[in-house]
Amino acid sequence: MAKFVLPGQTESGDQHVVCCSKHAVLLAAIDGIGHGEEAARAAKTAATILRNGIDEPILSLIENCHEKLRSTRGIVLSLASIDPVHGMMTWLGIGNVQGALIRARASKGTAQEVLLLRAGVVGAQLPSLQAAVLPVSQGDTLIFATDGVRSNFFENLSALAAPQRAADRILEHYHSGTDDALVVVARLTGIRS
User: Fold this and answer.
1) What confidence tens digit (pLDDT) does each residue in 27-74 have?
2) What is the total count of domains within the chain?
3) CB-facing half-sphere around the CA of 116: CA atoms within 13 A
4) Domain encompassing residue 24
5) pTM of the predicted protein model
6) Within a domain: residue 193?
7) Is residue 192 part of a domain?
8) Closest by alpha carbon to 77, among 59, 100, 94, 56?
9) Is residue 180 assigned to a domain?
10) Within 10 Å of residue 26's Cβ, how many Cβ atoms?
11) Closest by alpha carbon to 157, among 173, 146, 138?
């Protein structure tokens, strides 16, 4: 994970979740609407809801976040729930937090799967929810980036780069400098084949 806090702000409105249970791995990148303390408060509330509901279906998690965030500015987010026993990932994006999956055997610069984002704001205007389900394998790499990262960050990605190094590199080369930015890079391990 790599993070950039907009100069002049005391905390970031962008938060992440990476947590595991016996049955699932949950990853999310959350962007509170706006900047500063109010954005951070909404994003932190969503992160807590997600962590506490790790074994729930992601559609239920989104609906729960939506209800609990109605009194805030709201958030946009992308999240993925991985079932390592069956090698399946369910993911969903609402707003403009980008997501990509790079297969373990990918050639440089190739994101085989890109998350379809749905317009909306969790806590204000929830779109029709439809998650995508796809198989994942040992060594695949999942990347989420908030809107403080330019969308062309997909260029020159490598399935071989260490996750922290990849997150740092994406943030260094592609953050806009005009918004909080967050990059989450996770290598999927423990997937049964």
Assistant:
1) 999 999 998 899 999 999 999 999 999 999 999 999 999 999 999 999
2) 1
3) 9
4) 2-187
5) 0.94
6) no
7) no
8) 94
9) yes
10) 21
11) 173
